[in-house]
Structure formats: structure tokens, C-alpha cells
Amino acid sequence: MKKHRTRALAAACLLLATAGLAATGCSKSEGDDKAATPSGSSQDAAQQQVTESATAAADGCTLTSHGAQKLDLKNAVVGFSQSEKEDNPFRIAETKSIKDEAAKLGVKKLLTTDAQSQLPKQISDIQDMLTQGAQLLIVAPLNSDGLEPALQAAAAKHVPVITIDRKINATSCKDYVTFLGSDFVKQGQRAADAMIKATGGKGQVAILLGSSGNNVTTDRTKGFLDEIAAKAPGLKVVAQQTGEFTRDKGQQVMEQLIQSKPGITAVYAENDEMGLGAVTALKSAGKNPGKDVKIVSVDGTRNAVQAIVAGQYNAVIESNPRFGPLAFATAQKFYGGEAIPENVIISDRAYDESNAKDSVAGAF
Fold first, then answer.
1. Are 164 and 81 in contact (CB under 8 A)?
2. Which of 157, 179, 266, 363 has the smallest C-beta neighbourhood within 10 Å, fewest atoms?
3. Which residues are CB-neighbours of 32 under 8 A, at least 6 positions away?
């Protein structure tokens, strides 16, 4: 098993060469905490370091097995489908990263769309980009299910699809080439560990769930609950309610929970925006977030890291949105004839009171 993981890790690290990313990340094991510690350098923070590939490259998707035609990106039309409204720092950073890397590589034409958190719109966006001549698609899926009409349209034209940040329930190398993103279960586990540290393993915790229908919410919840059950039985989960990954909804849910569950002493928010909404609700109710009620979330936005510095937050597990270099490096490898693993998993940092002040500048 260890031999297989080493072989798979080496294969995944090959994807970094084209983008010029930090090769040092490939020497770290999946569980190496040092690899996940922010250095404070904005350049370092922008890099996505591959930690693991679920399949060896030799078993991955190739140009031949997919049925796509060889393509020079400098003469290509590339489409990027964003899933959610770009009033979220994660989405803003993600789209900017794709645009910046396309410009850096000299991609002939980049088409960009924003589904505004509407699945039917994302389907039509992708179909429209195909009509406009897109030869490669980079897709940030809104949901894990439901994109079948768009994927079928791409497959009919033999247009490769690279998915980022959320996995889809589909067949690799048929419906899509590869998934690039985080280990969301591990993010939940690490958030639980941070919560246990902040609370001493005791208290009542509320979970602000992400939007339903995608693996990010499911996996971050599973990781957190399993870790709490295994390590801190004295930390009771007393509420789970969706905040839909938005600050306003997170605030509304927290306001309701303050009334219905007054004994809450901790909040796990499955993204920073909901966590920051919870901060606002708690302050309005006369409570001290970060002290009276511990808060841990996932994303790594600058506002959340700054909240740690201000003492209103306890920890943040990063989910790195800067997919541009890795996505285009993967595409170049694919068009160069190399086999691409089904899943390429990246490392994520962690922020708490020990490093937040020195790391704010590197957050997105």
C-alpha cells in the first residue's frame, strides 16, 4: 500500500513541472503538518502543492482513451464555468487565478461564465461555451449531480472537462478527465481537531452546513463528526443547519440558534463566509465570538484569518482556490500525451492564533 501511494504521489508531482510550482511540496507526506503551515509569503500561499493521486498516472486518462484531439493552448478556445456568485472571496480568487494563468500562458481565447448558484444556468453556460467553440472546459461544479446534459454535450464533441474544487458523480475519462481539489473529509477532521483544541473537548457545538447536493458539504460534515466522536465524546453536536455557504444565511441561522440553543459554546462553519456571519450574529447578541463561543471554519479567506488576529475566531482550515496553474499544467500534460490521474489532491494550510498574524498577507 505504501509502495502504491509513493508511486501515485510521484505521478501526481509530475503535474507540477509545467506550472513551475514548488516541487518541495511533493517531498511531503499526506499527513505532514509542516506542509500545511503557512509561511506568511503571498507567493508561497498562491501555490497548490499536490500531496496525493488516487491512481497512478499510468492508469489515468490519456488523449487516446478520451478521444480528444491534440491541442496547443496558445491556439485554443478554453471555457471556464464558475458555479457561484462572485461575492465570495473563494470564488473571486478562483476565477482570478484561472484568468491570470490563461493570460500568462497566452491562451488564444478564454471564455468565462458565472452560474450565479443556479444549476440550470451552469448547464446552459457550458453548452453555450461549446457552441462558441470551446475546445477545453475547466468547470467548478455547483453540485455533484445534475450536470449530465452539459457533460454529454462536451463528450459529443470530444471536449475534455477538468473539474476543480468539487467532485462530480460521473465516470472519469468519459464524462471528465480529472478532479483537482482538496481532501474534504480530511478538512473536516482537521477542523474537528482544531475545535477540540479550542474547547478542551467539551461543550455544545453547532454545525453550519454548506449547500446540499455536493460532496464538499457531505465530506466536511463526515470528517468533523467522525473525528469528534472518536476523540471528544464530551463535545456534543446539538444542531446542524445549512447556511448555504453564504454570510447572510450563516448570520440568520446563527441568530435562530442563539435563541433555540442558548447553550451553544462552539460553531463549526463549513466555510468562512458562514463563520463570519456567525460572528456578526453573536456580537449582536452580546456574546464574545472566539471566547464565549469558539469558532472554526474552512476556506482561509483574509477576513477570517484577520478575525483570528482580532481574537474573534479560533481556527481556519484552508481550502486553496488558486487552481489556475495546476489546471493549465494538467491540461498541458494531457495534450502532451501523458496519462492524468482521476483525482489530484492538494495540500491545505491551517491558521490559528500561533500563525495568523504572520499569515494574513498570504490569505486570499
1. no
2. 157
3. none
Give the tens place of pLDDT for each residue, 280-308: 999 999 999 999 999 999 999 999 999 99
* Per-residue DSSP letter, 173: T
Contact 115, 122 (CB under 8 A): yes
Q: How many CB atoms lie within 10 A of CB 146?
A: 17
Q: CB neighbours of 60 closer than 8 A, spacing ≥ 6?
A: 11, 173, 178, 339, 340, 341, 342
Strands, E assignment, the chain: 50-53, 77-82, 109-114, 136-139, 161-164, 178-181, 203-209, 235-242, 266-269, 294-299, 315-318, 343-346, 350-352
Q: At what angle do helices 89-105 and 324-335 cross, to 10 degrees?
A: 40
Phi and psi torsions of 87, nearest 5°:
-105, 5
Q: How far is CA 145 from the centre of its chain?
A: 17
3-state helix, strand and coil shares in percent for the chain, rounded to the nearest 5: 45, 20, 35
Q: Which H helix or E strand runs over 99?
A: helix 89-105
Report the length, in residues, of the chain.
364
Q: State pTM to two decimals.
A: 0.86
Distance CA 63, CA 68 (A): 6
User: Residue 221: how many CA atoms within 13 Å on its side-chain side?
Assistant: 18
Quick one: CA dihedral 35, 50, 221, 319, positive or negative? positive
65 CB neighbour count, 10 Å cutoff = 12
What's the grid cell of residue 18? 509545467
Closest CA to 322 of 114, 113, 89: 89
